[in-house]
From TrEMBL:
<dbReference type="GO" id="GO:0001503">
    <property type="term" value="P:ossification"/>
</dbReference>
<feature type="transmembrane region" description="Helical">
    <location>
        <begin position="7"/>
        <end position="25"/>
    </location>
</feature>
<keyword id="KW-0735">Signal-anchor</keyword>
<dbReference type="InterPro" id="IPR029044">
    <property type="entry name" value="Nucleotide-diphossugar_trans"/>
</dbReference>
<dbReference type="InterPro" id="IPR040911">
    <property type="entry name" value="Exostosin_GT47"/>
</dbReference>
<dbReference type="InterPro" id="IPR004263">
    <property type="entry name" value="Exostosin"/>
</dbReference>
<dbReference type="Pfam" id="PF03016">
    <property type="entry name" value="Exostosin_GT47"/>
</dbReference>
<protein>
    <submittedName>
        <fullName>Exostosin-1c</fullName>
    </submittedName>
</protein>
<comment type="similarity">
    <text>Belongs to the glycosyltransferase 47 family.</text>
</comment>
<keyword id="KW-0812">Transmembrane</keyword>
<feature type="domain" description="Exostosin GT47">
    <location>
        <begin position="107"/>
        <end position="390"/>
    </location>
</feature>
<keyword id="KW-1133">Transmembrane helix</keyword>
<dbReference type="GO" id="GO:0050509">
    <property type="term" value="F:N-acetylglucosaminyl-proteoglycan 4-beta-glucuronosyltransferase activity"/>
</dbReference>
<dbReference type="GO" id="GO:0005794">
    <property type="term" value="C:Golgi apparatus"/>
</dbReference>
<dbReference type="InterPro" id="IPR015338">
    <property type="entry name" value="GT64_dom"/>
</dbReference>
<keyword id="KW-0328">Glycosyltransferase</keyword>
<feature type="domain" description="Glycosyl transferase 64">
    <location>
        <begin position="475"/>
        <end position="723"/>
    </location>
</feature>
Length: 740
């Protein structure tokens, strides 16, 4: 009985608790509704630009109102997107045919461009994209070899009100026999949608094609499949591009203005909410935020009470002056999520502060943007000034340095934007041999790190310092031989003896490029290190082939007539171990700009200034052999082989483009003189009067391909301790270097 009473009592308590909760909660809710109705307010989970209680802190309501009917709910946007992109769930595993790419290993990654039809209109920007692909090492003119297909139809501007809009794309691409619902196709786009909503409608069904698009929304971005690219103007350079504006690490790193923006203010339509509120953070001192209504044909019809004042204030400041002198640059969304100001800020080393909710940043698959930009929230504009003020000087300097690295590695030209897109896709196709995030986000950038060579950081010379790794303690000598062996007194015989005596020499490889067959092993002198004779196939560029026999990190490149001492070799090798990413050697040359001819010149005069160290006697890392053979275009290597000239200049161009640093000259015993060739041997190249003219032309040809002049001048020379000091020679380690 006692137990039954206890259970009954517990049941009654539970019922009472439920009744109280139901009626009490209902009363509270009714009271809350009465109070809010009395005040004319509505409870919302997050402040909205149309909240009257929230807006007085920012602007008047009539300043921020947009056209009625232009706003879309998230569900409506998703439904519109699904109608446009029916394969919105595409991934590489489901919408890409890997078998087309893996027929020849990584060499099978080839890109085919559909031929343009006779009356096709192609914009300047799209022509640059197609040129970049056509001149890349991945291009093929045979569609049977292709892994990836690119349309010849210009798809960059899909705004139906634009003069660049190309109609009937859907009908045309469906007629392509290789279209296959877009599988293995790559489509480039910069502008989508049209007034007033600027949706991401391209006006045709992309099917299973990969979309390389600017202003991509994170809701519509297909991770691991699409590629977000930056919005760039038609004036963006094809190659090279201008260097970043951070010339040196200025301390303190802050500039005259803390934060700046100067641009259009949209009075109505999408994007107007953010732009209309920017004037609230302007203080005219260290924060300059300027907008103008004066754009478009009928701006005066929509002007408000603030337009005249804004236009006057807008004209007081020069945009370029603000860019050069601001620490942070505000990058708000425009009509679309992307903005030209993003690339302008990166180049200017002005840290971008993004106000574009939902923007999938360019190359987000590989770039760690938190190391270069500050991402804000459009709804919390007034918090931006306090946020950037809280960033310390060390962080500011690190952010500015990263903007420069990213600008020069991936964004300074159309070539780099297109090649980065292709390399990202290639890494997805061959994911087992691909770059890691460190390679993409550190110098020299992912485009100059070829994973076919290695995927280990410690195998690349430019990562040694960051990893705390030292290069190996041995080198391989590669001697370029072009003269037949007719005498035991030829310079190459003495050179073999000198090099083999070095305690750092691991092996010697003779690259035989003579017209006559190489002599037998008995004709060569005995040496303490292995000697290998390799057929150079009478090609000048063969001296820079990635020979399998080279097992050491360091390579000593030598001409057959080079005159050196063993102590010179040892000293240069020790210097190289301190600078493994550079060329270290003896004979210097230089380049200069000729303003009269408006061309680059080449000089062999002996001065204190140099930008080239000839590879006839120089150390460098073996990775540059691989880069020379697989990164540079076939056209440049063909030029070198045809003229039997300029391979040393081209290698200097390549290494300086990677490092942005000059080579290093070391002390030498005497200047190399151009002596006549011994009887029976091949004449020296400089005996030909055309030799020097060819080198002048090579400098300009190479500069045109790179898009800029990568060579860097230097007056830096490294000598041994006590070199030519008036002290006893017994105290000098390299005393032989001072002998005439």
């Amino acid at each position: 009985m006692q137990a039954r009473k206890k259970y009954v009592l517990l049941g009654l308590c539970a019922c009472c608790w439920l009744v109280l909760f139901y009626w009490g909660g209902g009363v509270q809710l009714r009271l809350l509704r009465l109070l809010t109705r009395h005040r004319g307010e509505v409870v919302r989970p997050w402040p909205n630009w149309t909240d009257r209680a929230f807006l007085p802190r920012y602007a008047h309501l009539d300043e921020l109102q947009t056209d009625p009917g232009t706003a879309e709910s998230p569900r409506q946007r998703r439904q519109a997107w699904s109608a446009i992109y029916k394969d919105s769930r595409c991934r590489m595993e489901t919408c890409f045919d890997f078998t087309r790419c893996r027929r020849r290993g990584r060499e099978g990654f080839r890109v085919y461009i559909y031929p343009s039809e006779k009356n096709d209109r192609v914009s300047e920007s799209y022509r640059k994209i197609l040129t970049s692909i056509g001149e890349s090492r991945y291009y093929t003119s045979d569609p049977r070899e292709a892994c990836l297909f690119v349309l010849g139809i210009d798809t960059l501007d899909r705004d139906q009100l634009s003069g660049q809009f190309v109609p009937n794309v859907d009908e045309r691409i469906r007629g392509y026999p290789l279209w296959n619902d877009g599988r293995n196709h790559l489509i480039f786009n910069l502008y989508s949608g049209t007034w007033p909503n600027y949706t991401e409608d391209l006006g045709f069904n992309i099917g299973q094609a990969i979309l390389a698009k600017a202003s991509l929304n994170t809701e519509h971005f297909r991770p691991g499949f699409d590629v977000s690219i930056p919005l760039f103007s038609k004036d963006h350079p094809q190659k090279g591009g201008e260097r970043g504006w951070l010339v040196r690490n200025t301390i303190p790193p802050r500039r005259k203005y803390l934060l700046m923006f100067k641009g259009k203010r949209y009075l109505t339509g999408i994007g107007s909410d953010t732009r209309n509120a920017l004037h609230h953070i302007h203080n005219g001192k260290d924060i300059v935020s300027l907008t103008t209504c004066r754009h478009g044909k009928d701006w005066e019809k929509h002007k408000d009470a603030r337009c005249d004042h804004d236009n006057l204030e807008y004209e007081r400041f020069d945009y370029q002056e603000l860019l050069h002198n601001s620490t942070f640059c505000l990058v708000p969304r425009g009509r679309r999520l992307g903005s030209f100001r993003f690339l302008e800020s990166l180049q200017a080393a002005c840290i971008p502060v993004l106000l574009s909710n939902g923007w999938e940043l360019p190359f987000s698959d590989v770039i760690q943007w938190n190391q270069a930009v500050i991402e804000g929230d459009e709804r919390l504009l007034l918090q931006v000034p306090s946020t950037v003020r809280a960033v310390g000087n060390e962080r500011v300097l690190a952010l500015r340095q990263r903007t420069q690295m990213l600008w020069e590695a991936y964004f300074s030209s159309v070539d780099k934007i297109v090649l980065t897109t292709l390399e990202i896709i290639k890494d997805r196709v061959f994911s087992h041999i691909s770059r890691n995030k460190y390679m993409w986000n550190s110098l020299p950038g992912g485009l100059l790190v070829l994973p076919e060579y290695s995927t280990h950081l410690a195998h690349f010379p430019f990562y040694y310092l960051g990893l705390g790794v030292s290069p190996g303690q041995e080198f391989t000598a590669v001697i370029h031989a072009v003269s037949p062996l007719v005498s035991q007194s030829q310079p190459i015989m003495k050179l073999l003896q000198v090099v083999s005596k070095s305690k750092y020499c691991s092996q010697i490889i003779i690259l035989w490029n003579s017209e006559k067959p190489p002599p037998s092993r008995s004709k060569w002198p005995p040496m303490p290190v292995p000697l290998t004779v390799t057929d150079g196939r009478r090609k000048t560029t063969s001296r820079f082939l990635p020979h399998v026999a080279i097992e050491t990190e360091a390579v000593l490149s030598l001409d057959e007539d080079t005159v050196l001492l063993t102590s010179e070799v040892n000293f240069a090798f020790l210097v190289w171990r301190s600078f493994p990413e550079r060329i270290v050697g003896y004979p210097p040359r230089s380049h200069f700009w000729d303003p009269l001819k408006r061309a680059w010149g080449y000089t062999s005069k002996w001065t204190n200034d140099y930008s080239i160290v000839l590879t006839g006697a120089a150390f460098y890392h073996r990775y540059y052999h691989y880069l020379f053979s697989h990164y540079l275009p076939q056209s440049l290597r063909t030029l070198v082989d045809r003229t039997s000239n300029c391979e040393d200049i081209l290698m200097n161009f390549l290494v300086s483009a990677v490092t942005h640093l000059p080579p290093i000259k070391v002390a030498q015993r005497k200047q190399y003189k151009e002596l006549p060739s011994p009887q029976g041997t091949k004449s020296v190249p400089w005996a030909n009067p055309e030799h020097f003219n060819q080198r002048q032309e090579c400098v300009n040809t190479f500069a045109n391909w790179f898009g800029y002049m990568p060579l860097v001048h230097s007056q830096f020379r490294l000598d041994p301790v006590l070199f030519k000091d008036q002290v006893s020679v017994l105290r000098k380690k390299y005393k032989d270097l001072e002998k005439a």
